Amino acid sequence: MSKYKPLWKYLKMYGQDVYVLSYADIKDILGFDLDHAFLNYEKEAKDFGYEVGKISLKNKTVTFRKI
Prior knowledge:
Blueprint: H1 5-14, E1 18-22, H2 23-30, H3 38-41, E2 50-56, E3 61-66
Antiparallel strand pairs: 1-3, 2-3
């Protein structure tokens, strides 16, 4: 099981078209800080109907879009 599965389930459960989650929001969902490994796992979001959009290092946010 992917360590990011709780995040993908969260996105699917609420079903919004677009999410902009802060790194802190993601930490609350996952229980750990977002790290560079996320880039290797972001493709898993498609299995839950989402894609990873913009990752803003400046604003510390990640945008997810429903596909």
